[in-house]
Amino acid sequence: MPLPKDIRFISFDCYGTLIDWELGAYDAFQKEAERDGFTVDRDQLIPLFVGTQHEVMGGSYELYAEVMRRTAIRCAQELGWQLEPSRAQFLPDSIPRWPAFRETNAQLERFGKKFEIGLISNIDDKLLGATRRHFRADWDLVVTAQQVRSYKPDPAHFKECARRIGGKKGWVHIASGYETDVEPCIKEKIPVIWVNRHGEKLESNQKKPTEEVKNLRDAAKLLGVA
Questions:
Q1: How many CB atoms lie within 10 A of CB 131?
Q2: Among 30, 119, 195, 219, which has the minimal tally of Cβ within 10 Å of its Cβ?
Q3: 145-199: per-residue pLDDT in tens?
């Protein structure tokens, strides 16, 4: 799918694209583990967190706060940290403190001056509400996992967004998650810009996004708003 000639709506994934979830989650794990004299290795935690969260989300739908609690317990077990399950609330409680990337607000304001903008996120409404305090932009549309009762890469978020904006014409999605966002957009024929912050390499069987950039600034330049 090429980029539309007349773009009217830009949607963004939130965590990983606008919010530095890796830093936020690592800090939360490390601060809680320090109470027990345990040190968390970031390079070990991040892929473990991603894989564990994906497995938990694959079950029957539950609020993201509960997904986080279960993810915290399972990650701690894998790390060899004896975390009492009653303390797992530390992880969802940390989400409001997960910081925006330095570029996020300036770029969102640029996008918002030229296009309608929306958020499409694997989160519940309450936690997203706390995260939105980090943003200066006004959102024209927000779709959460709680609203569609499923988690990406299930296409429900994107189908609901298309329903609300009246179709896919003129719509571009911007996201950092390949499996959660890029793949479902390709399947749904939604032009997608992959923010590949870590320089990931695609396997031969993985389809390319519409465009690939290193950060939001590059995405803004690509769409003529920088």
A1: 23
A2: 30
A3: 999 999 999 999 999 999 999 999 999 999 999 999 999 999 999 999 999 999 9
Distance CA 52, CA 59 (A): 12
DSSP string spanning 11-59?
EE--BTTTB-HHHHHHHHHHHHHHTTT----HHHHHHHHHHHHHHHHTS
Work out the angle between the directed axes of helices 42-57 and 64-79 (0-180°, nearest 10): 130
Distance of alpha carbon 154 from alpha carbon 80, whole angstroms = 32
Sheet holding 116-121, edge to edge: 141-144, 116-121, 9-12, 171-175, 192-195, 211-213
pLDDT score of 226:
73
Residues 143 and 119 sit within 8 Å (Cβ to Cβ): yes
Structure tokens at 104: 């996020």
- For the chain, list residues with pLDDT below 70: none
CB-based contact 74:56 (threshold 8 Å): yes
Rg (CA), the chain: 17
